[in-house]
Specification:
Number of domains: 4
Structural class: alpha+beta
Order of helices and strands: HHHEEHEEEHHHEHEEHEEHHEE
Number of strands: 12
Strand order of the largest sheet: 2-1-5-4-3
Largest sheet: 5 strands, antiparallel
CATH class of the largest domain: Alpha Beta
CATH architecture of the largest domain: 2-Layer Sandwich
Helix content: 55-70%
CATH superfamily of the largest domain: Histidine kinase-like ATPase, C-terminal domain
Length: 444
């Protein structure tokens, strides 16, 4: 949600920057255009006329040359009576005496459609006319109070327009933000496994339609997966139950044959082998059933206060009592004093099963024998347990599964260690396999 709010604020900030940049650009353009238009404004021309006026002498030739350079169509010098006393290319119909009202008129506007500029002094009134249509020459006059009112109105209008633009941006941006928040919430709900249905209206209609279709498809797939998983769990449970009775008969008869004193030694050995393999099949079925229940959270945890040190000692005793040729697998167990009092609210049988699977895995995959070890201590208030051996080590793919949870490709047997990871994760612990695969560390 914070990311959406950040996007919304970035949108508003960008829009405001664009508005102010546009306004500044308009002012700059206005200033440039104004400076270009008035580069040679009336003030400049009057200044040029004043320079020509200073050049006026008896023959006026120097002044005429300057007027020619300035592009003036005609010029004349009037005395106090309005009579031309000197002229430059003056048209015949303009060569006459001018009254005071005529002089006052053309000094402000035009003389026979010629835009004119004047300059006066002791020498008289110099009048310079430029080509028709070359200059817009009107004097603008305005009452100061009205002019101030106009500027005030323009300022308020600019501020109001800017405020309205900002308000429109805020409202429209908030509408998009609210719509995007709904879409983000819907995507988050989909990611958490829920179902959504958005209103398919507005500018984001296509996105809403896509999310709704995705939600429907995921819901259908989830229902199909649930049905498949339920069927698989029931099948595993059924097979485990159905195979238990005949397997018990096989184990019982094999044990009976093995224990009869009059049985041929060769037959007794084969009966012992049948019993051992039957036990292995039973354990595999139990592992499969337990793994299925843990995976789908149907195995209840019978939590109670347990001491990890006691469970580790039970595991060591069970291993030594059940293992043939125990001398080939010497076991060293080191439990630090601080670990003796460590207790957890946990399922004792499942933790025993996990620890037993780890040491049993070391024995099963090192037929030529190896040394086994367990070390337990407390660090930063967390109990640590490390199982290690001197054998061939766990394959890298299985180590990756224990560390990252990624199932290995191909036909890799990891049922026992898979149950270990599931049990430890169910107790909110972590499992980590060393790089060489010869140690597994569990932290609660």
């Amino acid at each position: 949600m914070k990311s959406l709010m950040r996007i919304y604020f970035n949108y508003i900030a960008t829009a405001l920057v664009i508005i102010f940049a546009f306004a500044a650009l308009q002012f700059v353009l206005l200033a440039v255009i104004t400076s270009k238009l008035y580069e040679n404004d009336s003030g400049g021309k009057r200044h040029s006329i004043a320079r020509v006026y200073e050049m006026m002498d008896e023959d006026g030739q120097e002044a005429a040359a300057c007027l020619q350079e300035m592009g003036v169509s005609f010029a004349m010098l009037l005395d106090d009576a309005g009579t031309p006393i000197w002229s430059y290319q003056l048209p015949e119909h303009l060569n006459h005496t001018y009254t005071t009202s005529q002089v006052a008129s053309f000094t402000r506007w035009y003389l026979d459609d010629y835009p004119v500029y004047v300059w006066g002094g002791e020498k008289g009134l110099l009048v310079a006319g430029y080509p028709k249509g070359s200059i817009w020459n009107y004097a603008v006059h305005q009452d100061m109070d009205k002019l101030k009112g106009i500027f005030t109105f323009l300022s308020l209008s600019f501020i109001s327009t800017l405020a309205a633009a900002v308000l429109i941006l805020l409202v429209s941006g908030f509408r998009y933000y609210r719509r995007m928040r709904m879409i983000a919430d819907a995507i988050g709900q989909l990611a958490s496994g829920g179902s959504v249905h958005l209103a398919e209206t507005g500018n984001m209609k296509e996105i809403a339609c896509t999310i709704n279709r995705t939600s429907d498809r995921l819901t259908t797939q989830r229902e199909q997966l649930d049905k498949r998983d339920e069927a698989r769990t029931e099948w595993i449970s059924g097979v485990s139950h159905d195979i238990r009775t005949p397997l018990s008969l096989v184990m019982g008869y094999a044990d009976m044959i093995e224990r009869q004193s009059d049985t041929d030694p060769e037959i007794r050995d084969k009966a012992a082998l049948i019993r051992a393999q039957s036990i292995r099949i039973r354990n595999l079925i139990e592992d499969l059933n337990l793994a299925s229940k843990l995976e789908y959270n149907v195995q209840p945890l019978r939590r109670k206060k347990v001491f990890l040190a006691a469970i580790l000692r039970r595991v060591a005793a069970d291993l030594l009592n059940s293992m043939e040729q125990a001398e080939r697998y010497p076991l060293a167990i080191c439990i630090e004093p601080g670990f003796e009092t460590v207790s957890l609210e946990a399922d004792e049988q499942l933790l025993f099963r996990a620890f037993r699977n780890i040491v049993g895995n070391s024995v099963r995959h090192n037929e030529d024998g190896c040394s086994l070890g367990v070390r337990a201590w407390v660090e930063d208030g967390c109990p640590h347990v490390v199982f290690y051996d001197s054998g061939c080590g766990i394959p890298p793919d299985v180590c990756r599964y224990l560390n990252e949870g990624r199932m290995p490709e191909g036909n890799v047997h990891l049922m026992g260690l898979r149950i270990v990871r599931q049990i430890i994760m169910a107790h909110e612990g972590t499992v980590h396999a060393g790089k060489n695969g010869r140690e597994i560390e569990i932290v609660f």
